[in-house]
Amino acid sequence: MILALIQVGGLGIMTMASLVGLLLANRIGLKARLNTAAEARASGLGDVRSVVLGVVRVSLAIEAVIAVALAARFAVSYHEPPLRALWLGIFHSISAFNNAGFALFSDNMVGFAEDPWICVPLMLAVITGGLGFPVLFEIGRRVRQARRRQPNAEARRWSLHTRLTLRVTSILLVGGIGSVLALEWFGTLQHHTVGSKVLIAAFQGVMPRTAGFNSVDYAQMDDATLLITDVLMFIGGGSGGTAGGIKVTTFAVLLFIIFAEVRGEKSVTIFDRRVDPRLQRQALAVAAIGVALVIVPTVSLLAGTNFDLNVLLFEVTSAFATVGLSTGITAALPVWGQMLLIALMYLGRIGPITLVSALAARQRRRRYELPTERPFIG
Q1: Which of 35, 98, 152, 168 makes the best surface tag, with the fewest CB within 10 Å?
Q2: Residues with Cβ < 8 Å from 279, sequence gap 6 or more?
Q3: C-alpha–C-alpha distance, residues 180 and 200, integer Å
Q4: What are phi and psi of 44, to 5 degrees?
Q5: What's the rounded Cα separation, in Å, for the pair 292 and 205?
Q6: Who contacts 344 (Cβ-Cβ below 8 Å, separation ≥6)?
Q7: Rounded CA gap, 232 and 241, in Å?
Q8: Which run of H or of E encompasses 130?
Q9: 118-150, pLDDT tens digit by residue?
Q10: CA distances (Å), 2 to each of 6, 192, 303, 367, in order?
Q11: Phi/psi zone of residue 158: left (φ > 0), alpha (ψ -120 to 50 degrees), beta?
Q12: What Rg do the C-alpha atoms of the chain give, in angstroms?
């Protein structure tokens, strides 16, 4: 039952997020849509049916490959019976690709912390699911174009969304892995070999993409590692994917807004493309509401329990970003605290998509403009 809910939930989120983008695009005038399609050619989403079938095909194909790899490892190296090995492979593959982080072992994946044949497939599934369907769809289209040897240079141009998602995701992955490796080298990783340290750091650097698997005990980690993990969880993965958080594109747009303001530029540009001011306001709104959804529950739990700030902030951020990582205090929280986390998980899962779709669809045109005045900033 849990596996079915994970699969249906992952497919539903990816489909819903992609369809929201499609439906919002259909609200734009024909001329604007033609210009956008000619300029970006980003998603390739033609209709509802193609979106749904594309999401299902891509998801099942990736899950099948990961499941076979995991099942083979469980059967050969851990001597699991064939059916049991297949079940373990399927469950953990679906759990990883849909960024659920549920494991069938009492210590999650701690028992496989030094096994790259288990950890690497799980990391690949998490990263792939967290990129988002529009990015996966475009990557697949580029592969088909390469096989056909299409010479058109314009056809080989990557969309802004894909370039932004891939580059920011790469930076966050490298930063997360490097931070865990540096901060925990003489901490939770001190009793492992160098190769195992790198593998464990890589695993824990990937999982804050909102996957939730852990190969070490987070309760033993340094406070600095927990704080960095909080940031990674809050940012999350790509739009239209199975990951939570405010999304990497939202985070990237906010950074470029800051860069533009520091340079004194009137418009925000990303990779030779100007960002619509309405999209900038949407990014600010999503980030600000996300911060509020983390701070308010954290303050409430801090006032009503005896736990420290660092573990409570970690717990709340993990719930908001639907990660599932924990320092082990969930069961010790009062009932009202657990209910608060449940509500936060629900809001964190559907909130950003609902908010962005509502903001994008809401267009109110004024017939007049009010006088301009500048309050002091800073």
Answers
A1: 152
A2: 253
A3: 9
A4: 70, 20
A5: 25
A6: 293, 297, 316, 319, 320
A7: 16
A8: helix 116-131
A9: 999 999 999 999 898 888 888 888 877 777 776
A10: 6, 34, 34, 53
A11: beta
A12: 22
Residue-wise pLDDT tens digits, 168-223 = 999 999 999 999 999 999 999 999 999 999 999 999 999 998 888 999 999 999 99
Contacts of 245 (CB under 8 A, 6+ apart): 210, 233, 234, 235, 236, 237, 290, 320, 321, 348, 352
Cα(257)–Cα(275) distance, rounded to whole angstroms? 9
Fill in the amino acid letter for 335.
V
Which residues fall within 8 angstroms of residue 128, CB to CB, at 6 or more apart?
A: 62, 97, 136
Tokens of 37: 């399609």
Model pTM? 0.85
Q: How many CB atoms lie within 10 A of CB 124?
A: 17
CA distance 75 to 85: 5
* C-alpha dist (Å) from residue 110 to 6, 58, 103: 22, 29, 10
216 vs 236: CA distance, rounded Å: 20
pLDDT at position 352: 65
Question: What span, in angstroms and rounded, lies between the C-alpha atoms of 177 and 204?
Answer: 7
Q: Report the distance separating Cα 319 and Cα 297, nearest Å.
A: 10
What is the per-residue DSSP string for 299-362? HHHHHHSS--HHHHHHHHHHHHTT-----S-GGGS-HHHHHHHHHHHHHHHHHHHHHHHHHHH-
Residues in the chain: 378
Per-domain residue ranges of the chain: 2-361
| Residue 239 banded pLDDT, cuts 50, 70, 90 | confident
Give how far Cα 321 sits from Cα of 11, 103, 146, 247, Å: 18, 18, 36, 10
